[in-house]
Each structure stands twice: as structure tokens, then as C-alpha cells.
């Protein structure tokens, strides 16, 4: 959860800074390699990374003794919601990495490969730090999810020159968060990234990009397939009490969703500022009707779901 929080904030910072640059009219992507832009990107990224690592150490690692490098198998935790989060963050950071290097003027394939790996490399460096912490450990499952996210963004860009399938995110506050605020967050900011019961990860598929003819379906229309989970008051199993109070016997369950979505990056508003805002927000799945299936309550229709 700690790493997902940091990755989420890092993604927001990178996407906002990149797109603000475009919004300010700081030229179009360079047709050739622009050394001064590359220097600025390298300095800014390097400084941001060092500061982020230092902040992460102060917030998390210094509170626990160091240990020999070791592995930790957390694949059974949180019904794999954390793995979906790692994949999604690596995907979106990789997408913005490609945009940055394209803006710099890096050759197309190099921009795709190097930029697309940004999220996976960043995330994996945190896993290495985990490996030397007695509280955590290097998670091969997290690393696999990181590189899967990178593979999804790189593969699509190489094959299609666009992202036809996007990884997105949504969140609604869950009742479970009120039962375990120590673990699932005691305010909305922490809930947003720590409350796996309220998080839904989405695969959003653009319909028109898979057709070879004009369609009555708008170019921005996507079908979205979601995965979530509920009933989790602990990483692997639910505790029976918290601070001396009995907890309800919740059944841990997976949830699957079908909904529709909007690819904001495909809406041309003729305004760089508005387009920039849309690009920044495009990793968020829009509020829309959704059909849910889970093994406990079976089929549920949500008139509006987020």
C-alpha cells in the first residue's frame, strides 16, 4: 500500500508537470533531438527522483531496521488488488515517459522503449529498497506487475502507434475503511490509495480503434472491464477484533464489472489547455452505469458507479 501511495503521487506529479509544459505552449514535440530539452528533463527527473527517494526513506524506511537483502512473497495479499495497482501505475508512468521523450525529439522507437520503461524502473528501484528493510522485502510479484504494465504500453505503441487499451482507476469510499482506519486509511487521501475495498482497476478498450470502417460510435467511446474486491480487513485474512472491539465476519470476495468509459485523449477541444486537463485526468475511469458480478450476491446493476 505504501508503495502504491508513492507511485500514485509520482504519477500525478509527472503527468501534471509534463502536460503543464505543453499547455503553456512550450513548443510542439521536437522533430529532431533537442539537447537543451533533454538536459532539462534529465535534471528535473533526476532531482525529483532523489528527493522522492529521500522522502520515502524519511516516511517509511527509517522507522525500521535495515536487514540483509531478502525476498517477500506477497502474491496472496489483498486478492491481488495491489498487483493490479502496480501494473496500472507502471503503465501510466510509461505512457507519460514516452510523451516526454517524444517531446524531446528522441527517435520514435527509442522514445517508446526508454520512455515506456520509466514506470517499471522507478517502481523496481523501490522494491530494491524494500529488500533491505526488515519490515518489507523484495517482491517478485510486484516486479512482475511493474514490467507487465510497461509491456502493455510499449507493445501497443510499437504495434499500433497508439493506446487502444488503457489501464485506469476509480475509487469510492468503502465501509471496511471505517472499520480499519489504521490499515485502510484515516482520511480520504490515504483511503484513495490504501483502501483496496473501494478501489476498482479498469481495462478500458476503445471501440473505434479496432474497426476498419467509420462507425456511428463516437471516437472517444470505450468499453471498460473492471476488477475489484471487498470484505478485506487484512492483507491475507481478516482479524476478529480491532482495538478490543469485535469486527464483523466479512466474506472476502472478488468483483468483476462491465461499464463504458470515455477516452479523454481522443476528444479534440481545439484548446491546448483543455486537452492538457483531459490528458492529465485520463487515467481516471469516469462515473457511469456498471454491471457487477461477484460470487456472493451474483449480478448487481449500479446506475452510477465509480
Describe this structure in words.
The protein is α+β, with helices and mostly antiparallel strands and 306 residues long. It has 10 helices and 8 strands. The strands form 2 sheets. A 6-stranded antiparallel β-sheet has the order 1-2-3-6-7-8, with helices on one face. The chain has a two-stranded antiparallel ribbon with strand order 4-5. α1 packs parallel to α3 and α4 runs antiparallel to α6. The longest helix has 25 residues. About 3% of the residues have low confidence.
Short structural description:
The chain is of the alpha+beta class and 306 residues long. The protein has helices spanning 2-23, 35-59, 81-104, 108-116, 118-131, 140-160, 175-179, 181-184, 188-194, 272-281; strands spanning 165-171, 199-206, 221-230, 241-242, 245-246, 253-262, 288-294, 298-305.
Task: Record keyword descriptors for this entry.
306 residues; alpha+beta; 6-stranded antiparallel beta sheet; two-stranded antiparallel sheet; 46% helix
Distance between the termini: 20 Å
Low-confidence stretches: 16-25
Structural class comes to alpha+beta
What does the overall shape look like? Answer: globular
- The mean pLDDT is 89
| Succession of helices and strands | HHHHHHEHHHEEEEEHEE
Could you give the count of β-strands? 8
Number of helices: 10
The strand order across the widest sheet is 1-2-3-6-7-8
Give me the Rg, rounded: 20 Å
Portion in beta strands? 15-25%
Q: What's the topology here?
A:
Elements (H helix, E strand, L loop, with lengths): L1 H22 L11 H25 L21 H24 L3 H9 L1 H14 L8 H21 L4 E7 L3 H5 L1 H4 L3 H7 L4 E8 L14 E10 L10 E2 L2 E2 L6 E10 L9 H10 L6 E7 L3 E8 L1
Antiparallel strand pairs: 1-2, 2-3, 3-6, 4-5, 6-7, 7-8
Helix pairs in contact: 1-3, 1-9, 1-10, 2-3, 3-4, 3-5, 3-6, 4-6, 5-6
